[in-house]
Amino acid sequence: MLRKFLTPLSAVRRHSTKDLVDGFNREHTYLRISVSEKCNLRCQYCMPLEGVNLTPKSGVLTTNEIVYLGEHFANLGVRKIRLTGGEPLINKDIVKIVRRLKNINGIESVSLTTNGITLYRHLHELIDAGLDNTNISLDTLIPEKFAFIGRRPRQFHAKVMMSIHEAIASSLKSVKINMVVMKGLNDDEMVNFVDLTKDNNVSVRFLEFMPFNGNSWNWEKFVAFSDQKRMIENHFGCLERENDDSHSTSMNYRLPGHAGQIGFISSITRNFCGGCNRIRLTYDGNLKVCLFGRDEVSLRDVIRSPSYTEEELTDVINGAIKKKAFSHGGVDEIKKGLNRPMILIGG
Description:
The structure is a single chain. The chain contains eleven helices and twelve strands. The chain has helices at residues 63-76, 94-102, 119-129, 143-150, 156-169, 190-195, 225-236, 299-303, 310-322, 331-336, 342-345, and strands spanning 30-34, 80-84, 109-114, 133-137, 174-181, 203-208, 240-241, 251-254, 261-265, 278-281, 286-288, 297-298. A hairpin with a 4-residue loop joins strand 10 and strand 11 (286-288). Helix 1 (63-76) packs parallel to helix 2 (94-102). The radius of gyration is 20 Å and the shape is globular.
């Protein structure tokens, strides 16, 4: 089977203009790969209280399989890869994975989404391997509240802050802090998060709380983008709109005199589905063409079949993407759907 994972790109058929294009003519050039189902936090919006059943080791993608699929997607037109989890830094091969993916012909950037607890330990090794960008998840600047949201010791908070400061000071092309805003829990800290952009070239992004299996989503906890923006402008004054990429998930703004940016990810009240160019590969090898969608197809099973061909793998990928809906169906439909908890999808 190893022979399959050493197939040179020249042996794979060339990229067609029809590859990775859905029924609405959206080309998918951005692949998010989950490299771990495990996490050293238990965040309330991500991990069900009772935890999750982990996939047996035999059922998750190996490092060679991750890289092989990365090569195949690159040959079909993917240009950006983001590594997610769980917590991706738990994967002992994370540096090797970054290096091998970055060396794939056609891949322009490799990024990482992390909770930051151990990032400071691995940062320079990851950058040397080719890491371009990182997103760090942080929902509070208060250690005690951090322990409540993440269900882990408050001492972890200092490690995340250390990772943020080291990442900002590093040669990474971009550093982003992602905050999931929840009413009555951390919405009173938004102004303090904006203050981080005053002297730091960092993007602070405020995410609408999204419903996933086991995260007890309800409207009482929800803070809409419009309310988030109003709260910030009531304190700082008008935000200046930035020119966003057509595929951006974030509506980006800047405050005069601030070194960094502010972004809003309004998945619920003002979705960005029309410009979606993203697909996801779960750690157990399933392709998800929509974060909120229930439909998945196993690429792991395809590539582990002794008789599979490159054309068959391409057909399975393109077939799944062709079925992608134009947008998610709204909160009611999302809540009714049998989706995975966020930790098992890949943040």
